[in-house]
Amino acid sequence: MNCELAETTIHGYFDGELDAVRSAEFERHLEHCPQCQAALEGIESLRMQLQQSDLYQHASPELREKVRKQLAQETRKAGFTPGLSWKRWFLLPTFGTLAAAAAVITIMLFVLPAHRESTLTTELIDAHVRSLQPAHLFDVQSTSQHTVKPWFDGRLDFIPPVADYATEGFPLVGGRLDVVDGHNVAALVYARRKHFINVFIWPYREKEPIAESSGSRQGYNWVAGKSGDMQIYLVSDAAPSDLSELKSLLQQ
Amino acid sequence: MLDPQDRIRFEQLVLPHLDSAANLARWILRNRADSDDVVQEATLRAYRFFGQFHGGDARAWLLQIVRNTCYTWLQKNRPSELMTEFDEEVHQRPSANPETLATQADERRRLMSALETLSPRFREVLVLRELEGCSYKEIGEITEIPIGTVMSTLSRARERLRQALTGAARLSGTAAKEVS
Predict the structure, then answer these.
(1) How many CA atoms within 13 Å lie on the side-chain side of A10?
(2) Which 80-109 residues of chain A touch chain B by CB within 8 A?
(3) Interval B94-144: pLDDT, tens
(4) N or C of chain A: less Cβ packing under 10 Å?
(5) DSSP β-ladder status, A213-217 and A195-203
(6) Residue A72's closest CA among B170, B83, B43, B90?
(7) Closest Cα of chain A to B51: distance in Å?
(8) ipTM strictly over 0.90?
(9) Are A128 and A220 in contact (CB under 8 A)?
(10) Which of B2, B112, B162 shows the shortest C-beta gap to A46?
(11) In Å, how far from its chain's centre is CA B57?
């Protein structure tokens, strides 16, 4: 007795790749087919073995370093000289050096924080746009704060505040991990009519404070602020007033 | 041509998937030193082609380039590995070890050598599905297998791996008996 399904469909079923109808059909078949039951157990235990044996080969720090260096080289080759111009300034004679130092200090005091904030905003808007692509919005999909909150447990080194504001018109729809500015952050997703609002949350860093601010770029609106000891950053194509409203809810 | 803005975007979108790139290349080439070289080359190529990336799944995009670079490298340096028929039987049994199954480290070694006896094309779909968690669509994109045949390829790959593992267990079982 050889069940054909045990060789094909069962894999699609096991991998969650069948549509609802075929999946239900297969489940009905599975009830009466010992061969498929055994096969399912087999591929399940194979997966367990593979996933629990530490087989994943991460990139080594050396490889990361090499890749980064190579990119920098490639960028320079293309005619961009990030960093180089600074060195050149410092090679100028004394007066020049002083002037340069003054310029550098000015840049560090005023321009860099603004620049950091601006790249951060770009990064968060990118993260928002990315999250709207199919299957990217949530890692955990739930309207319940009691499901979303524990999900973050152990995935982050901080505990983000998670609350549902459905009654205020901002139902919580899910959560996700994201990486922003090299740090892991929590992203909560709220719905507002037909829009999604990403709320990025990470612990407030004193050295890198982000002012209460708001703005819009590329058609997306953002609002930044502090909530308790967390930094919050809301990004969406919803109206700025909606964002401010949700922000004040989050800050209560 | 790439500008500094592109470099930032590349670092944000593509570089976070360097682990995935390293993992796939290591499993296709079965060797760290070679796979590190290939990953380096592949990321450079990805960077040069970045202008052609129009959003979408950055991981799949990078992995596709990594995979192509791996196969080009194999073609040049170890062409015999590509000669092995896609459908062939598992040709070498992992060497018998009488004391296997004792510890987790042994279990890991056993799985590794079983995986490494598979042809690269079976190994890659297993790695993408079981270690990388890719969907069939992503696997199809990365390996250029038509999506309709991803399922059957995976099915055969799992079966080959199972055979390789039971082969090893059977051999080590016999060996254990002979020792006692």
Answers:
(1) 24
(2) 80, 82
(3) 444 545 445 767 888 899 999 999 999 999 999 999 999 999 999 999 998
(4) N
(5) unpaired
(6) B43
(7) 14
(8) no
(9) yes
(10) B162
(11) 19
